[in-house]
Amino acid sequence: METKKETITLISKDELYRTQLKANFLAKGYHLLDFSDVEEARSALQNQQVDLILFDSSSQNVPEFNSAQDPQNATVAQKKIPLIIISNGTGEKAIEAFKAGADDFITKNELFDISLSRVQMHLNAKKIERDLELQRLRAITSAKMVSLGELAGGAAHEINNPLSIAFAHLN
User: Fold this and answer.
1) Sign of the C-alpha dihedral, residues 68, 74, 75, 80?
2) Whole-number Å distance between alpha carbons of 81 and 123
3) At what angle do helices 15-27 and 112-170 cross, to 10 degrees?
4) Residue 140 CA to chain centroid, in angstroms?
5) Element housing 150 (H / E)
6) Per the confidence metrics, is the pTM higher than 0.85?
7) How many C-beta neighbours within 10 Å does residue 20 have?
8) Quick one: which of 97, 95, 56, 50 has its CA closest to 75?
9) How many CB atoms are closer than 10 A to CB 32?
């Protein structure tokens, strides 16, 4: 039985880097949508199920990514899509990325296996969060059903008592 692999959106103006990452992630069985800029990626974020975003900030500013979201639709943060920023730099670029709402920061010179591990970590965390939310919703539904059952039992008891007394007097 084949399991569904998550969909990763990659946004990078660096075509060679995008091609390398795409080949690596496809080889690992992930579904990858790759775009050269934020405007191209907008429809993928609004119209498709996206599990993680890799954003190369080497040639694009991180705030540009956030401002490209359509105000009428849910933003990346509202959809709880993990956002990993990729850059040549460290230090200041990492701080900028985290201030812009990134969940993680990867440098371009990191080995692919390290980057893959970090991507998998965020995807696993998202899956656990989604499972917890489903369990929470099931618990709420179960509690509502218990309350409804108690209410119905109480109502039946309240109706049954006067009827029992009335039938007893009729006999």
Assistant:
1) negative
2) 9
3) 60
4) 21
5) helix 112-170
6) no
7) 13
8) 50
9) 19
